[in-house]
Amino acid sequence: MKKYIDSFVHRVFIWLKSKHAGLGLGLISFAESLFLPVITDPFLVAVVLANRSRWFYYTTIAIGSSILGGLTAYVLGYWFFDSLGQNLLDFYNLSSRFNEMAAGVDDSGFIFVLLGALTPIPYKLVALASGFLKINLVTFILASIFGRILRLGTIGFAAHLLGPKALELIRRYLHALAYVLMAVLTVYILYSWIF
Fold this sequence. Notes:
Elements: H1 2-17, H2 21-34, H3 41-50, H4 55-91, H5 95-107, H6 109-118, H7 123-132, H8 137-162, H9 165-194
């Protein structure tokens, strides 16, 4: 078993330094934003650590691919609602409640999407829900760009700047920082709804 694990690790390191690292990172980032139950962060760190001089290139690939994956999830959510979602709401007599909730989310759609793009809340779920709730597409794209740049851009820059220490620091503090940001944004949303 150890032989197979060592072989796999060796192949991963070869891939990280290959010309295909960007393509692989892009595919992982796209799939993570659409359906894959992993996060892009450790893959981005690994690719940047393997070639620190190209950190900006790899970070840009991760951000762009993630936003494209989120946009695909948004479109699927939008289509799903029209084909099946409305029928389910009608069947359970929830159309009026859903419309009220959708209006409330649309008023703070930017914050809703930003939370998904920046925090441990799965971005793919927020993207799907955004399409389902028909959040303004421009709002969705702008919040996705802002949130993904903040999250993946910070991680890519940290990996470039701190080197191998970055993975441990990100693992230790990323979720704590994300939860603080989520709490601040939640307070802002509650404040804006109440006042």
